[in-house]
Design goal:
The complex is a heterotrimer. Chain A has a two-stranded antiparallel ribbon with strand order 1-2. Chain A is 70% helix and 2% strand. Chain A is an all-alpha fold. In chain A, helix 6 packs parallel to helix 10 (265-282), helix 7 packs across helix 13 (306-333) and helix 10 crosses helix 11. By secondary structure, chain B is of the alpha/beta class. Chain B folds into 3 domains: 5-238, P-loop containing nucleotide triphosphate hydrolases (Rossmann fold, 3-Layer(aba) Sandwich); 256-334 and 420-519, Rossmann fold, CATH 3.40.50.300; 352-416, no CATH class. Chain C folds into 2 domains: 2-115, no CATH class; 126-404, ABC transporter involved in vitamin B12 uptake, BtuC (Orthogonal Bundle), CATH 1.10.3470. Chain C has helices spanning 2-35, 66-86, 93-112, 120-146, 154-172, 175-199, 204-227, 253-257, 262-280, 282-292, 294-299, 304-331, 342-352, 357-379, 386-404; strands at 44-48, 62-65, 117-119, 241-243, 259-261. Chain C has a 3-stranded mixed beta sheet. In chain C, strands 4-5 form a two-stranded antiparallel ribbon. In chain C, helix 4 runs antiparallel to helix 14 and helix 10 (282-292) packs across helix 12. Classes of the chains: A mainly alpha, B alpha/beta, C mainly alpha. At the A-B interface, helix 1, helix 11 and helix 12 of A face helix 10, helix 11, strand 18 and helix 14 of B.
C-alpha cells in the first residue's frame, strides 16, 4: 500500500545500553509506595495547577485592560495596587456569583424554603451550559483517542443543530416520545455525516483532517446562512438568519419548574459520557479505536482495517458533536440561529485534553467550563469585561496541560519526566 | 611518540546507571583500534563523549598530548575528530556536495553557496583515498555502501585525523565490508587513526590492530588479534561463557505450511522489490532467508504475513491459496509474526504490557466475550507470560515504552509464541539486542521448531542464519539467487551470493533495471 | 522486471484515468446541457477588460456570444474527456487538467454573465490581491516547516497582526508603524509557538491550536472592549495603490499587474528572496538540513534549536505581514474573525506547492482566484445563491488537498521535536 510506511525501510532501532540497564535497575528496586492522598494529588496536580494558572493569567489580562488600574497608578503606587485588587475582585465576584449563585440567597432559600428556584437558577444555568460542553468535549476526546484531531466540532454542531431543527419543525402531530428522539437522532446523524467526510478524505487520500475539518466548518457556516436566510427562514424575520421554533413535541422536557431551565439533556449527556467511557475502555470496539489511534502500523498488524477505524473515529466524533447541536436547539434555544454554538467546538479541544481524553474526566472539565461561561456572562453584564476572556483563559489552560513541564518549573514540582506522556497522537501532513 | 588520542578515567553517570566507569583508552597514530562490547556496554556513550554529544562527569581527553575540553560536535570537528554513525547522518534529498559541505560551506559573497568549489574538493579527496563518488548525485539514490563513502568523505573534508566508525558493517555485505576495511587500511596508511566500534568478533580478529573489550561500562581487557580467538573474546565481552551455537535436534519435517509461488511485491514507493520468487516451508524446519538489508526480504516478510498486498503471485498458507492474506486470517490460521520493525509494527508503545500481550487476539475469548473485554483474563495472561518469558520489570501495567529493547522484543515473542502455532515468520528477531536476549530468543525459536512448527527466519545476520536454519535461501535484488541445506554450505559462500554472485545466471535483467528503480526512491 | 514495473504503474493509473475522464465528460455535459439551456442564440456575455476607474492601460470590452462559446467549450471538454478515457494524456495530464480547468471557469463566467457585464480585469486584479494573505501564509508555513516545525498557528498570527496593525495604524496615523507593529505582534506569538514546540516539545499541532484559540479570544476581547466603542482606535489609513510608470500603461496587464497595493509587490519581492535564500544560500541549506534530519545537522555543528527559533520567528513576521493586509491593505479597520480561514488555506497552498515558494504562490493565486470569483459572481445576482459561491475557496482547498497529498512529501522532520538525547 502506498504511503503506509515511511520511505526509509530502516527499522527504528532503539538505544539499548544505558536505558536498558537503568530499567533493569528500576525493576529490582521495590517501588516507593505513596499514600492514596499523595497519589490522588499527583494525578490531579497538573490539571489543578493548569486551571489555577489560567485563571491567574486571565486576571492579568483583566488588570492590563482595566482603565481604573491605570488611573489608580497615576494617583500613586498604593491606589494602583488597590485598583488592581478592585479589578480582580470586581471581575471574579460576579464570575463566581454568576456561576454558583449568591451564597446568601441560597442559604436564605434553604432556610425559608422560598424562592428556591431563583437561588439555584445560576448554578443550574451552569449545568445547562455544561451539557453542550460535555457532549462536544466527548466528541474531541473520542477523536483524540482514535488518533484524529477533529477541529470541525463547530461545523458538526451547526449541522447537527440545523438538521434537528428541520426535523423538529417540519413534522407535526407526532407524540413527544417519538418526535424528540427522532429529531435528536437526526441531528446526531447530521453531525456524523459532517465528521465522516473529512474522515473519509483522510483515509482515502491522506489529506489532513485539521485543514479539512476547518474548511468544513466554513462550509457549514455558509450552508447554515443560506438555509436560515432562505428555505428555513422564520416567517417575517425580514432576512434575519433565524429559523422558526421547533414543535413543542420535539423539545427536550425540563427537569424542574421555571425559572430553572435545566433540561433532561443534561442527564443524557452524563449518560452518554458513561457510555463512551464504557465503549472506549471496556469493549473490543473501543480497543480497536484506541489501537488505530495509537499506532496505525500496529493496528494493521493486529488485523484491523485502519482506514475503517479512522473513518469510524471521525464519524463517531462528529456524531457526538451533532448530538451537542441538537440538544442545544431542542433543549435551550428551540430555534436555529447563527449563535447556536458559542464556540463549543473549539473550546472543547482544551476541555478534552484537560480531562486527559477520559470521558468521565470530561464531566468534570465540562462542569468547569460551564461554570466559567455562565459566570462570565454575569461578569460581562456587571463589569463589561467581554465573554472572550473565557477563551483566553482556556487557551492558557490548554497550553499548561499540553506542556506540564512549564507547570513543573513554575511551581517547582518534582515529578518524573516520563509521566509527561504524549497527550495526543496527531499525525503530520505526510500522513505518517 | 605521544598517542594522537588519550582518554583518562572517563566516567559518565546516567540516572541510575554508570555508563562509563573510569575508562582509559589510548589511540596511536596510524592504527585501527577495535572497541568490542555487546549492545549496552557503554561503547557508544564513550564515543559520544569523545564527539562532544555528551559531557563526561570525570576524566580527561588528551589530543596529541594536550588536554582538551570538547563541548560539542564543533569542538570535536575542530580537534580533527570525525564520526561515521551507525545510522548515517545524511540527508537523503540533498546532493552529495550539499551533504558534505553542510556546516562548512564554501560560499561566494553574501552567503551564496559555491557548490563547484566544494565538488572539486570532494573529487580530490575521492582520488586521494580511493573513495569515488559523484558529487552531484542525490544521496537517497545511492546504494548503502556508497552512502557510507559519503560519510567518510564528510570527515576527510573536515580534515579529520581521528575517525570513529560506529558499527560500520551492520548494513554491508561481507564483501562490501571487506572493501570498507581496505579503505580503512588505506586511511591509516596515509596517517589517519581509526577507532571502530563493533560487536562482531570475526571483524575484530581480522582487521583490527588492537582490541579493547568493554563490559558494563568498564574496560575488561585489551588484546591483539594474534593472541585472541572468538571464544575468548566472547567470554570477555559477556562476562561468562557463551554457548555460541545452540543445540539442534533432528526433527522430521512435516506438511508444507507456507508456499510462495511467483510472488511479486512492491515497497511503499511502488518500486518492485520482490521479483516473482518461489519457495516452500515445511513444518518442523527453519528456513533462513539471508540477504543484505534492502534486497526485498522486508517486503517478503510483510507479504506472507498480510502486512503488505502482493502485486501478483500466490501465497499458499496451511494448504489454502491466497492472492492476498489478511493479518487476522494469518493469525487465526495458527501463525505468528515477529515483525522486523518491532517498535512500529509489533507494539503499541503507549499501551501497557498486558494490553500488548493480547494484541493480536484481544477480540476473541478468553480476552473478549461478545465484544466486552474480560480484564481478568487479560491480567491472567499477562502474569503468566511475564513469568514464563522473564519480561523485566515484571509489571503488567507498565507502559511498553518504558521497557528496554530486549524486553520489548520479549513481549512480542511471548505474545506470538504463546499461541499454538504451526508457522512463525520471524523478521530480524534479534537485531540490536544484547547477547542474553539473543540467546533466549534463539532458544525459544528452536524450541518451537522442535515442537513441529515451521519457521521462516529473515535475518541479515549471517551468524544467526547459520546457527538456526535447516535450509538457507539467499535473496539478492528481489530474487532468490541461492538455495541450499545449511550443512552443505559455508558462510563465505553464502556471503558471496548475498553480494550478488549468481545473480547473473538467475535473472539476467536484474542488474540493468536496478538503476532505474532506485531513481524512483524518495 | 522492467515489464512488471510498467504493468504496475499502468494498472495504478487506470482508475485515475477512468475517474478523471468521467468527471471531464460530466462537466462538459454540464456546460452544454445546464449552462447553455436558458440562452437564445443572440445572448451575449460582456467581459470588461479594464478595472473600474482606470484611465491608463484601457482595453476594449470583449463580447462573447454565450451560446456558441458554451457549445464549443463544452464540446472540447467532452472530447478531451473521451480522449483521456480511451487514450490518455499520459505525462501531459497536468497540462490537460490546467487547460481543462481554465475552460470550465471560462464557461462558468460566460454562463453567469449572460446578458450582463462582468469585469474580468477586476476579477484578476482582486484574485492577485486576495492571493496575498494566502501566499504569505504559505511562505510563513514554508519557513517554519522547512526548519521542521509545523505551524497551524498562522491563522491566529494573522488575526493578531491584523488587529494590532489596525490599532497602531489608527493611533499613530502611520501605515508603516502599523505594519511593523503587526509583524512584531505576530512574531511574538511565533516565539511562543517556537518556545512551546522546541523547548517544551509539545505536539506542534496542539501548540498551534493554543495560539489560534488565544488569538481569536484576545482579538475579540479587545475588539469588543475597545474597538467597538472607540471608533478612533479602529480607523487606520490604508496602503495606497502604487502604479509602476510605463508598465501600468499596458492594456489589461497594466492595471492588473502593475498598479497594485504594496502588499502585492511585497509578496513578489518576498517570493524572490525566499526562493533564492532557501535553495542557493548557506542560510537556506542549513535551515533545510534542520528540517530534514536535525541530528545530522547537529553532528555537523549546526545549532538546531537556534535555527528553528529563527525560522519560526521569521515565519511569524511574514504571517504578520499577511495579517496586516486585512486591515492596513484592504478595509482599513479590524473586524472580528476577518481572516476567515485564510491562514489555513495558506497551509493548503504550501502543501499544494510542495513546500516550494514559487509553486506555493501559484497555488495561492489559484485560491485567491476562487475567492475573487466568488465575490464577483455574487455581485451579479447569479442563479446560484451567494453563500454557495462563497463556499468555493473552501471546497477548492479540500479538493486540491485530496488530490495532491501523497504525491509530494514535506520536510522529513516536520512536526517532530528534536531531542538532543
Amino acid at each position: 500500500m502506498a504511503n503506509q510506511t515511511p520511505p526509509n525501510n530502516q527499522p527504528t532501532e532503539e538505544k539499548t545500553g544505558t536505558v536498558e540497564i537503568f530499567m533493569e535497575e528500576l525493576g529490582r528496586k521495590p517501588e516507593r509506595r505513596q499514600s492514596w492522598l499523595g497519589r490522588f494529588w499527583t494525578s490531579i496536580q497538573i490539571p489543578f495547577l493548569a486551571i489555577l494558572s489560567g485563571l491567574l493569567l486571565g486576571s492579568v489580562i483583566i488588570i492590563l485592560t482595566s482603565a481604573n488600574v491605570y488611573s489608580g497608578f497615576r494617583d500613586g503606587f498604593l491606589p494602583g495596587i488597590k485598583a488592581i485588587g478592585n479589578a480582580i475582585v470586581g471581575a471574579y465576584t460576579p464570575l463566581f456569583a454568576g456561576a454558583f449563585g449568591s451564597p446568601s440567597r441560597i442559604i436564605e432559600a434553604l432556610r425559608t424554603g422560598e424562592r428556591i428556584g431563583r437561588a439555584f437558577k445560576p448554578f443550574t444555568q451552569s449545568l445547562v451550559e455544561t451539557t453542550p460542553y460535555l457532549l462536544s468535549g466527548l466528541a474531541m476526546a473520542l477523536g483524540f483517542r482514535a488518533g484524529v484531531f477533529n477541529v470541525g466540532g463547530e461545523g458538526q454542531i451547526y449541522i447537527g443543530a440545523v438538521v434537528a431543527t428541520y426535523v423538529g419543525l417540519s413534522f407535526t402531530g407526532l407524540p413527544q416520545a417519538i418526535h424528540m428522539p427522532f429529531a435528536m437522532l437526526a441531528g446526531l446523524l447530521g453531525g456524523a455525516l459532517w465528521g465522516f467526510i473529512p474522515g473519509w478524505l483522510k483515509a482515502k487520500t491522506g489529506s489532513h483532517e485539521v485543514i479539512n475539518t476547518i474548511m468544513m466548518n466554513y462550509i457549514a457556516l455558509r450552508l447554515i446562512e443560506y438555509l436560515l436566510t432562505g428555505p428555513m427562514t422564520r416567517t417575517g424575520s425580514g432576512g434575519m438568519p433565524i429559523s422558526n421554533t421547533v414543535e413543542p413535541s420535539a423539545r427536550i422536557p425540563m427537569m424542574f419548574d421555571p425559572p430553572i431551565t435545566l433540561h433532561w439533556g443534561f442527564v443524557l449527556s452524563i449518560v452518554v459520557a458513561i457510555l463512551v467511557w464504557f465503549m472506549l475502555f471496556k469493549t473490543t470496539w473501543g480497543f480497536n479505536l484506541q489501537i488505530a489511534g495509537a499506532n496505525k502500523y500496529a493496528a494493521k498488524y493486529a488485523g484491523l482495517n485502519i482506514n475503517l477505524w479512522t473513518v469510524m473515529g471521525m464519524t463517531l466524533s462528529g456524531a457526538l458533536a451533532g448530538l451537542c447541536g441538537s440538544t442545544q436547539v431542542l433543549g435551550v434555544t428551540y430555534s436555529m440561529g447563527l449563535g447556536v454554538s458559542a464556540g463549543y467546538g473549539f473550546d472543547s479541544i482544551a476541555l478534552a485534553l484537560l480531562a486527559n481524553n477520559n470521558p468521565l474526566g470530561c464531566i468534570l472539565s465540562a462542569l468547569l467550563f460551564g461554570l466559567l461561561r455562565t459566570g462570565s456572562r454575569t461578569m460581562m453584564s456587571n463589569t463589561g469585561i467581554p465573554l472572550d476572556i473565557v477563551s483566553i483563559i482556556q487557551a492558557f489552560i490548554l497550553m499548561f496541560i499540553a506542556a506540564p513541564a512549564i507547570i513543573r518549573t513554575v511551581y517547582r514540582l518534582k515529578g518524573p519526566k516520563e509521566s509527561d506522556k504524549q497527550l495526543v497522537n496527531v499525525s503530520n501532513w505526510g500522513g505518517n | 611518540m605521544t598517542p594522537v588520542l588519550e582518554l583518562k578515567g572517563i566516567t559518565k553517570q546516567f540516572p541510575g546507571v554508570l555508563a562509563n566507569d573510569h575508562i582509559d583508552l589510548v589511540l596511536n597514530k596510524g592504527e585501527i583500534l577495535a572497541l568490542l562490547g555487546e549492545n549496552g556496554a557503554g561503547k557508544s556513550t564513550l564515543m559520544n563523549i569523545l564527539y562532544g554529544l555528551y559531557h563526561p562527569d570525570q576524566g580527561k581527553i588528551l589530543i596529541n598530548g594536550e588536554e582538551k575540553t570538547i563541548k560539542g560536535p564543533m569542538d570535536a570537528i575542530h580537534e580533527g575528530i570525525g564520526m561515521v554513525h551507525q545510522h548515517f547522518m545524511l540527508i537523503p534529498v540533498f546532493s552529495v556536495t550539499e551533504n558534505v559541505m553542510l556546516g562548512e560551506e564554501s560560499v561566494k559573497i553574501a552567503g551564496i553557496l559555491d557548490k563547484e568549489t566544494a565538488a572539486d574538493r570532494i573529487r580530490t579527496i575521492g582520488e586521494q583515498f580511493g573513495l569515488s563518488v559523484d558529487p552531484n548525485a542525490i544521496v537517497g539514490d545511492l546504494p548503502v555502501g556508497v552512502q557510507q563513502r559519503v560519510e567518510i568523505i564528510k570527515l576527510l573534508y573536515r580534515n579529520a585525523n581521528i575517525l570513529i566508525f560506529d558499527e560500520p558493517t551492520a548494513v554491508l555485505t561481507p564483501q562490501e565490508a571487506d572493501d570498507l576495511f581496505k579503505i580503512m587500511r588505506s586511511l591509516v596508511e596515509q596517517g589517519k587513526s581509526i577507532i571502530f566500534i563493533t560487536h562482531k568478533l570475526r571483524e575484530v580478529l581480522e582487521y583490527a590492530d588492537r582490541i579493547m573489550v568493554i563490559q558494563r561500562g568498564r574496560v575488561v581487557g585489551e588484546t591483539i588479534p594474534a593472541e585472541a580467538d572468538q571464544e575468548k573474546l566472547a567470554e570477555m565481552m559477556v562476562g561468562r561463557a557463551v554457548d555460541l551455537i545452540p543445540d539442534k535436534l533432528e526433527v522430521e519435517t512435516g506438511d508444507i505450511v507456507l508456499e510462495v509461488k511467483n510472488l511479486v511485491v512492491a515497497d511503499s514507493t511502488n518500486k518492485v522489490t520482490v521479483h516473482g520468487i518461489n519457495f516452500a516451508l515445511r513444518a518442523g524446519e527453519i528456513l533462513g532467508v539471508a540477504g543484505v538489508q534492502g534486497n526485498g526480504q522486508t517486503e517478503l516478510g510483510e507479504a506472507v504475513t498480510g502486512m503488505r498486498e502482493p502485486e501478483s503471485g500466490t501465497i499458499q498458507h496451511m494448504g489454502v491459496d491466497y492472492q492476498k492474506i489478511q493479518p487476522r486470517q494469518f493469525v487465526e490460521n495458527h501463525s505468528a509474526h515477529i515483525p522486523e520493525d518491532r517498535r512500529r509494527d509489533g507494539l503499541i508503545l503507549s499501551f501497557t504490557v498486558e494490553d500488548n500481550l493480547m494484541l493480536c487476539t484481544y477480540y476473541k475469548p478468553p480476552f473478549s466475550n461478545n465484544g466486552i473485554i474480560n480484564r481478568d483474563a487479560v491480567h491472567e495472561n499477562a502474569v503468566s507470560l511475564i513469568e514464563a518469558f522473564d519480561i523485566r520489570p515484571p509489571e503488567k501495567l507498565n507502559l511498553v515504552q518504558n521497557l528496554s529493547g530486549g524486553n520489548q522484543q520479549k513481549v512480542i515473542v511471548a505474545r506470538e509464541l504463546s499461541r499454538k502455532n504451526k508457522l512463525i515468520v520471524a523478521s530480524q528477531p534479534t537485531r540490536g539486542l544484547d547477547v542474553g536476549s539473543i540467546e533466549y530468543i534463539h532458544n525459544q525459536l528452536l524450541k518451537a521448531r522442535n515442537e513441529g512448527c515451521g519457521i521462516l527466519l529473515i535475518s541479515s545476520e549471517l551468524d544467526e542464519i547459520f546457527e538456526l536454519s535447516d535450509r538457507i535461501l539467499v535473496m539478492y535484488k528481489g530474487t532468490i539467487t541461492f538455495e541450499t541445506d545449511t550443512h552443505e554450505t559455508t558462510k563465505s559462500e553464502v556471503g558471496l551470493y548475498m553480494a550478488g554472485a549468481g545473480a547473473q545466471h538467475a535473472v539476467p535483467e536484474a542488474n540493468p533495471s536496478m538503476n532505474d528503480e532506485v531513481k524512483t526512491y524518495g | 522486471m522492467a515489464r512488471q514495473m510498467k504493468d504496475l504503474s499502468v494498472r495504478r493509473s487506470d482508475t485515475r484515468k477512468l475517474i478523471l475522464g468521467l468527471i471531464s465528460i460530466g462537466l462538459g455535459l454540464l456546460v452544454i446541457l445546464v449552462f447553455n439551456r436558458p440562452f437564445s442564440s443572440s445572448t451575449v456575455s460582456t467581459f470588461l477588460m479594464t478595472p473600474g476607474g482606470y484611465t491608463e492601460g484601457v482595453m476594449d470590452d470583449i463580447l462573447v456570444p454565450a451560446r456558441m462559446s458554451l457549445w464549443i467549450s463544452g464540446g472540447i471538454m467532452i472530447l478531451a474527456g473521451l480522449y483521456h478515457l480511451f487514450v490518455g494524456f499520459g505525462k501531459k495530464e497536468t497540462t490537460f487538467l490546467i487547460l481543462f480547468s481554465i475552460l470550465f471557469v471560462f464557461s462558468f463566467l460566460v454562463y453567469v454573465s449572460a446578458d450582463k457585464r462582468i469585469n474580468i480585469a477586476s476579477l484578476f486584479s482582486s484574485a492577485l490581491s486576495m492571493a496575498v494573505p494566502i501566499t504569505l501564509g504559505a511562505f510563513s508555513g514554508i519557513l517554519c516547516e522547512r526548519s521542521g516545525v509545523v505551524n497551524i498557528a498562522i491563522e491566529g498570527m494573522m488575526l493578531m497582526g491584523a488587529m494590532v496593525g489596525s490599532i497602531v495604524g489608527s493611533v499613530t496615523g502611520s501605515i508603516w508603524l502599523g505594519l511593523i507593529a503587526a509583524m512584531l505582534s505576530s512574531a511574538l506569538l511565533a516565539l511562543v509557538h517556537a518556545w512551546l514546540s522546541i523547548k517544551y516539545k509539545i505536539n506542534q499541532i496542539i501548540s498551534g491550536t493554543v495560539i489560534n484559540i488565544f488569538s481569536t479570544g484576545m482579538t475579540s476581547f479587545i475588539s469588543s472592549m475597545f474597538l467597538q466603542n472607540i471608533q478612533s482606535l479602529n480607523k487606520t489609513p490604508r496602503f495606497p495603490n502604487v502604479s509602476i510608470p510605463l508598465l501600468s500603461k499596458i492594456p489589461f496587464f497594466g492595471p492588473v499587474l502593475f498598479s497594485n497595493s504594496l502588499f502585492v509587490y511585497g509578496m513578489i519581492l518576498l517570493l524572490v528572496v525566499l526562493q533564492f535564500a532557501l535553495f542557493r544560500t548557506r542560510w537556506g541549506l542549513r535551515l533545510r538540513s534542520v528540517g530534514e534530519h536535525p541530528k545530522a545537522a547537529d553532528t555537523l555543528g549546526i545549532n538546531v534549536y537556534r535555527t528553528r527559533y529563527m525560522a519560526v520567528i521569521l515565519g511569524g513576521l511574514v504571517a504578520g505581514f499577511g495579517g496586516a493586509y486585512f486591515s492596513l491593505g484592504s478595509v482599513g479597520r479590524f473586524d472580528e474573525g476577518m481572516t476567515a480561514g485564510k491562514g489555513f488555506i495558506g497551509l493548503a497552498a504550501m502543501i499544494f506547492g510542495g513546500w516550494i515558494p514559487f509553486k506555493a504562490m501559484l497555488a495561492g493565486i489559484l485560491f485567491g482566484f476562487a475567492d475573487a470569483l466568488a465575490s464577483s459572481v455574487s455581485i451579479l445576482r447569479s442563479p446560484i445563491p451567494g453563500q454557495f459561491i462563497n463556499m468555493l475557496p473552501y471546497i477548492v482547498t479540500i479538493v486540491v488537498l485530496a488530490g495532491v497529498v501523497g504525491s509530494g512529501s514535506g520536510p522529513a522532520a516536520a512536526g517532530t521535536p528534536y531531542d538532543k538525547e
